Amino acid sequence: MTRPTAGDAPALHPLRWWQIDQLEHLEQVLFPGDSPWTSAMFFAELAAGHHYSVALEGERVIGYAGIALVGPPDEPGGEAEVQTIGIDPEFQGRGLGRQLLADLLAAAPGRRVLLEVRTDNVPAISLYESVGFVRLGLRRHYYQPSGADAWTMEKAVKAA
């Protein structure tokens, strides 16, 4: 099986319950010092109806992302919160994060989108800023148990 490169991005699929164990494993790899999400947390996200997508290589999850829509789907001026984006380290730097973020934004048309990101996660901050997110403020000791700080960022709805 060939590995995706920047030129041949994998297709995204809705997250299915049988893939959640793979997400929990990736969380352990990606966020070992900051309370990685558990399978139960991902099941709760799906049960709540939040939008989650995965990128696959065969049956292997190599990336995932989720967003929560706040308020009714057709509510003008609604909000959305990026819950998570994670990329298997083997596949980072190939545009998969950008692809997943675009999928999340497409699931929240016309909504103000908020997120938190570690202040030391320069690649993620650069990605978010490149698509129009701006920093709103600093959340000290947001990530636990590491105590790392986070930027709260916003992508505002464009005026018509």
Structure summarized in a few sentences:
This protein has 160 residues and is of the alpha+beta class.
Structure description:
The chain is an alpha+beta fold. The chain has a domain of 102 residues: Gcn5-related N-acetyltransferase (GNAT) (Aminopeptidase), CATH 3.40.630.30. It is 25% helix and 31% strand. The longest helix has 11 residues. The chain starts with 11 loop residues before the first strand and ends in a 5-residue tail after the last strand.
CATH structural architecture of the domain at 12-113: 3-Layer(aba) Sandwich
Task: Give average pLDDT, whole number.
Answer: 90
Distance between the termini: 45 Å
Would you identify the CATH H-level superfamily of the domain at 12-113? Gcn5-related N-acetyltransferase (GNAT)
| Structural class by secondary-structure content | alpha+beta
What is the helical fraction, as a range of percent?
25-40%
InterPro entries: AcTrfase_RimI/Ard1, Acyl_CoA_acyltransferase, GNAT_dom, MshD_Acetyltransferase
Keywords: Transferase
GO molecular function: protein-N-terminal-alanine acetyltransferase activity
Protein name: Ribosomal-protein-alanine N-acetyltransferase
Produce the secondary structure layout:
Layout: E1 12-14, H1 20-30, H2 39-47, E2 51-57, E3 60-70, E4 79-87, H3 96-106, E5 112-118, H4 122-130, E6 134-139, E7 150-155
Parallel strand pairs: 4-5
Antiparallel strand pairs: 1-2, 2-3, 3-4, 5-7, 6-7
Features of this protein?
alpha+beta, seven-stranded mixed β-sheet, protein-N-terminal-alanine acetyltransferase activity, 160 residues, disordered N terminus, 31% strand, Aminopeptidase, 4 helices
